What we know:
The chain is an alpha+beta fold. It has helices at about 20-30, 35-40, 110-120, 145-150, 230-235, 290-295; strands at about 5-10, 45-50, 50, 65-70, 80-85, 90-95, 125, 135-140, 160-165, 175, 180-185, 190-195, 205-210, 215-220, 270-275, 285. The strands form three sheets. Strands 5, 6, 7, 8, 9, 10, 13, 14, 15 and 16 form a ten-stranded mixed sheet that branches. The model has no long low-confidence stretch (mean pLDDT about 95).
Amino acid sequence: MLNRGYAYITIVSNKDHGRTLLSHLASLYPHSTLQGWQQNLNNREVTVNGVTATGSESLTSGQTLVWNRPPWIEPDSPQHFEVLFDDPHLLAVNKPGGLPTLPGGGFMENTLLRLVQKQTPNANPVHRLGRATSGIVLFAKTPQAAAKISANWNTPRIQKIYRALAQNIAQHDAYEILTPIGLVPHPRIGSVWAANPNGKPSKSLAKVISRTTSTTTFEVSLNSGRPHQIRIHLASIGHPLVGDPLYGSTGQPLENLPGLPGDGGYFLHAQFLRFHHPITGEQINLEAALPSGFSLHQ
């Protein structure tokens, strides 16, 4: 799909005051080289405070940078979802693996948000799942529902249970995982969320569902909501997800050419979501059927 392009807007911070625009762009968007950014500048794609830039400008804190990225062909992604719950306040859907929840990482139109809003324009997700993660995504249709759900999202009032297929055979039947999560260096994108002793407190409860000769299937409940928490936490106790291209058995990026956070290949599914309706107060129990990939690999 050819999208409509996108304007990436940033404000120059105090730490970047005095840098040249070209070097700043290359550090801000490390997916392109200095030469690549100079070509973008030559194509008149970048403005500083509304003025087309050349790249040699010395930046001043507070300036507004805009990269007007031209339209590009997005990678293919699934174009379907299953509705699990729908009322005037909330919408819950079962997202397929491979479909981004929100725009980003090269995807603007091929996203769950765009697909849902074609049918329900006032629906906005109150959380997100990674592109390769399947399962329940909850949308709010009203500001009141969004505010109440968001306030309770990382509390025991909302129970989130995932199914994860992990490497290696678990020695215990249950684990309380408290590995802190913070940013660590990544050779391709600068930094990534991972196990970090100086990171933010995090808590997951992992219960063994089944074992094979080389894998363990876990049911994981989240008591906090850090980025990539289940992938990091299971990896940190020696059980990286089967097929995870990013995290190794310490919860850190793989030493040899780690993948990117959005890369797929692993098996993680948001299976259950239980909460009280933010407007009516009724108990809501949602379940998304496991995708076929789980049974094929167990």
